[in-house]
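Feature request, filed as a ticket because there's no other form

It would be nice if the structure record came with a short human-readable summary line next to the C-alpha cells. Right now we just get the raw output. Example of a typical job, pasted below so the devs can see what we mean:
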Amino acid sequence: TTAETATTAGTPSTDESSSSSSVWDDPEFAQALPSDTVCALHLLRREQFLPGLPPIFLVNQLYSIVKDATAVDQELEYLIQSRIIRLIHLNTSRKDMAVVFVIDARSFLEQVRSEVSLKRSLSEKNALVAFKRDSSLLDHGFDAFTSDLLDNCTQPWISKVRLLEALHLVRSAEDRERAVQLLLDVGVLLRRDVDTFWVTLPRIGLLVRSLTAGRRELIQVLRRAPYAEMYREELCAHRLKSTHLTVPFLLRDMLGCAMLKEVEAPGGMIIRIR
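Raw output as currently delivered:
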C-alpha cells in the first residue's frame, strides 16, 4: 500500500508515482488549467503524505501558496466538476476541507475493500450466512462508490435519496438500508444530518486528529519562543511529538487559514501568531 511503501513525508511511493503519471500526463488535464493552482496541486500531491491514507492535503495549503483565493476557488470548482479532484469534509473546529484526487480515492477504496473483506472472513467465519449477506451488500456499496458516486457526486455530501438510488442493484429496501449502515461502519460515509451524509474516506480521523494536535503543538512552540515568533527555517527543524504531520505541512495549513502570519526580516522569514 502507499502507507507501507513510503516511510517519510514528501517521499512518493511507486504506486503514487504511477498514479501521478496517469493524471498529470493526461493531455486534457495538462491543457485545462495551466495555472498556479494546478502547479500547487501537483506540488502538494507529491509532497504531503500521511500513513494509512491516500495522498491528501488541505484547501488552506493552496491558499498559502497561491495568494489569489478567488482564483483558487474557481479553479478547484472546475477540477471538481471535471471529476479530477473532490473535496473531503474534515470534522475539525474550523470545518476544514481536504483535497484528494479521484484516481487516488478510487485506488484507496479498492485497497480498503480488500482489507475489509479479509478481516470479515477471519472474524465472522462461524456466522457464514450473515457474513455472505453483509459481504455481498458491502460489495454493492463499494461498487456504487467506485463506479458511480466518485464520478457523479461532485458535492462533499450526498442525500440519502441519491445514495439509495446508487444502490439500485440491491433488491430490498431493508438490504439497501443495511448496505448504507455497512458503508457508515467502514468509514466511507459520515452522517451529516437526518437526510444527508458526508462522502469521506476510511481512516480520515487520522488526518483530523493529527491536524488538530499539530496545530495546537505548533502554537505552543511559538508561544514559548521570545516574542512568540521564530524564523521559519528554525521552526521547520523542530520535531513535533503529538502528530504524524510535518512542520512544513502544518505551516502551509496555518498560514493559509490565517492562524499564523509570515513576515520578511533581514535574517529570513519570521513566523508569528496572528
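Something like this underneath would help us a lot:
Residues 1-14, 16-20, 126-131 have pLDDT under 50 and may be disordered.
The longest strand covers residues 260-265.
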